[in-house]
Amino acid sequence: MCMCTVEKKGNLFILTLTGEDEHRLNPTRIDAIRSALNRIRSDSTSHSCSALITSAQGKFFSNGYDLAWAGSSPDKIRLMSSKLRALVADLISFPMPTIAAVTGHACAGGFILAFSHDYVVMRKDRGFLYMSEMDIGLKIPAWFMALISCKIGDPVVRREVVLKAKKLTAEQGVKRGIVDAAYDSAEETVKGAIELGEKLTQKGWNKQVYSENRKQLYKEILDQLGVDETTDDLNKVSIAASKL
């Protein structure tokens, strides 16, 4: 089953999560994304400056961890967490600007995936950004909080996202300064991401310098990626969900 595709458009690489499902982050999907990123790294060596755009088909960008896949297995929970942390490390070290074109809901781990990119653009007519942990009774791991703190500078907005579990639309995200642009449809969102990507590639930045500077900018996130202290709590919620 194809989990994602990569299209090359000039100096842009468009990675699309395929299918009409929720794009849950199980190890198979995460491995597919990481494999695609590795191919893009290899293919971009001849380009002075490229950009990555990540989008998704259907009504979800990603609905977070695949708790149904994990079931009641602590090992599967730990594996999912480890895989997602590795993917975030890949994106932070990626040798080009990255843009999340959020064309559907981005929830919990899906929110984290979107905000692991340098820029977030989003469609107005469908979808919201949602850290659901308060609503489903989950502790947020330190590495999630490190990323949220780095990406959301306003403490009032962080409180909304984390402690109120507020579902933010594209326009609300723009107003709060956490979404870079909002568009009328999925097609317009991807088009807007492409236009942004083209502007960024025209800068002609050195890709290794870009990667190293991003790693310094988000060192606090990288320092937290070695461990997830909440996997046992996540396992308890997964077991409860499996009984519903």
UniProtKB/TrEMBL annotation:
Listed Gene3D superfamilies: 2-enoyl-CoA Hydratase, Chain A, domain 1 (3.90.226.10)
GO biological process, one term: fatty acid beta-oxidation
Pathways involved: Lipid metabolism; fatty acid beta-oxidation
Domain of life of the organism encoding this protein: Eukaryota
The keyword Lipid metabolism is assigned to this record: yes
Family matches, as InterPro entries: ClpP/crotonase-like_dom_sf, Enoyl-CoA_hydra/iso
Keywords of this entry: Fatty acid metabolism, Lipid metabolism
Reaction(s) this enzyme catalyzes, per UniProt: a (3E)-enoyl-CoA = a 4-saturated (2E)-enoyl-CoA; a (3Z)-enoyl-CoA = a 4-saturated (2E)-enoyl-CoA
E.C. code: 5.3.3.8
GO molecular function annotation: delta(3)-delta(2)-enoyl-CoA isomerase activity
Pfam families in the record: ECH_1
Family: Belongs to the enoyl-CoA hydratase/isomerase family.
Protein name: Delta(3)-Delta(2)-enoyl-CoA isomerase
